Amino acid sequence: MRGGIDDLDVTGVAIASGAVDGGDLYVGVPGRHAHGADYVAQAAANGAVALLTDAAGAERAVDAGIPVLVTHDARAALGEVAAWIHRTAENPAALFGVTGTNGKTSVVYLLYAVLRQLGVTAGLTSTAERRIGDEAVTSSLTTPEASELHALLARMREVDVRAVGIEVSAQALSRHRVDGIVFDVVGFTNLSHDHLDDYTSMVEYFDAKRELFTPDRARRGVVTVDSEWGERLVAESRIPVATLATEPGVDADWHLEVLEETPIRTAFRLEGPGGRSLETGIPLIGRYNAANAALAIVMLVEAGYDLDLIAATVGEQGIDAYIPGRTERVSGERGPVVYIDYGHTPDAFAQALEAIRRTTEGRVVMVFGADGDRDTTKRADMGAIAARGADVLVITDFHPRWEDPAAIRAALIAGARAAVPDREIHEIADQRAAFRRALALVGEGDAVLYAGPGHEDYQEVAGVKHPYSARDDARLALQEAGWLE
Questions:
Q1: Where are the alpha helices (DSSP H) in 283-364?
Q2: For residues 142 and 173, which has the higher predicted lDDT (pLDDT)?
Q3: What confidence tens digit (pLDDT) does each residue in 63-75 have?
Q4: Is the domain covering 88-314 a CATH 2.60.120.480 domain?
Q5: Which of 47-56, 132-141, 381-390, 450-459 has the lowest mean pLDDT?
Q6: What b/e string do you get for 300-315 counting C-beta neighbours within 10 Å, with b at 16 or more?
Q7: What counts of helices (H) and strands (E) characterise the chain?
Q8: Contact, 122 vs 133, CB < 8 A?
């Protein structure tokens, strides 16, 4: 330590110098291109009262002008420090954490919806946004950095939020973003091919998520057990878990049965221990969304909410949920049905296409691209699954970032051709033109799935984020085509 801290009054914590407020502890961590301690002067000018960093950061901050505290790994210490500053352990809100490859955002929003229908002031943090009661805040990361997350929970406590749903990515666990938090109940959706640019294998990816099911992280868990990964998680969990099966013939505590599927609604029955059951519906397409809703309900029951009360609240009227950019229908009563989705993995493609196929009489056209500078090993599978599930593909650019966009499209096309050699494929780089080509190929009774952009409002090319909302553009194109007023 360098400098005295006995008289310091610390009111917050930040790891970005530009986000520092007066009274904050600034935490300088090493980054990809620079060390956070290099920006301590700006942090001090913004009101930081001390710096927490590692030995390398302390050497860079010799002229900081504020006390410097040194630890071996500042990022690893961030969560516990933020929890202490914001008194997270004293927060009376029930905390729900959701992990898995696909469905995290949907489960968090479904938790939020059911809680609000029960009359509970709720909050959430997701890939799409943060919600503090009725207030919405834009998201940047799936799971915020620990400093932001603990501050968010403290802000929620100030407005009497009583329950919070939090998306927990594998990276959040590996990079200490949820350190200092003990969840009341955690849930597991599924595990499928993704993020193998961050993890060397599916086993390593699974191991990162399994960390959530330990006593230091959570008190109880709910695991969807339709896959070998779910069964493995139950076997290796170090906390008590309830199990949920969404497929028939699987041994579990809770079972889901889908009763009806339409382009605008999915009805289901959830049956649990002792013959307890609930019938309800969601304004969303697909069995996988019913599975997400079932997981949310079981998590609430595990937290102590009464199943009969939940059934009485949502049984007849259904769950009043809106999930931005998750198979979100943007079309009107006439013309083709158009869905905008955030799915960008092979499994997400398969689930959405299967759901749309079951509720569509005519052709299914799919518009999609792939992330640049991300897991390249899934691109062939993405193309193959799209080719098997859709009648026509329109392959476009998504976020090429620093990669050659033509090479990304070529990989997707190669995967599609290998799976279905004669599949009709249109390659159109511009997203706006690509969607309009898809719309020109469909009519009444057909469907368009535009996968990838979801709720996002930009396209990233060579380090620049260009404004683009697939939802807004799709509605505009539908108006131009005369399908939407």
A1: 287-302, 307-314, 346-358
A2: 173
A3: 888 999 999 999 9
A4: no
A5: 132-141
A6: bbbbebebeebbebbe
A7: 15, 23
A8: yes
Check if the beta carbon of residue 13 is closer than 8 Å to that of residue 47: no
The domain made up of 12-72 has a fold known as: 3.40.1390
CA atoms of 281 and 264, how far apart (whole Å): 10
Q: Measured between alpha carbons, how far is residue 276 from residues 225, 273, 308 in Å?
A: 20, 6, 8
* Axis-axis angle for helices 202-210, 228-236 (nearest 10): 40
Sole residue written with tokens 């943060």: 130
Of 329, 42, 98, which is closest to residue 224 (Cα–Cα)? Answer: 98
290/301 Cα distance (integer angstroms): 17
- CATH homologous superfamily for the domain 328-480: Mur ligase, C-terminal domain (3.90.190.20)
How far apart CA 318 and CA 312 sit, in angstroms, is 10
The answer for residues whose C-beta is within 8 angstroms of residue 307's C-beta and 6 or more apart is 272, 276, 278, 297, 301
Closest CA to 188 of 251, 236, 145, 130: 236
Give me the residue spans of the domains in the chain.
12-72, 88-314, 328-480
Q: What is the pLDDT of residues 35-57, one digit of tens each?
A: 999 999 999 999 999 999 999 99
Q: Residue 219: is its pLDDT beyond 70? A: yes
Token code pair at residue 258: 């889908």
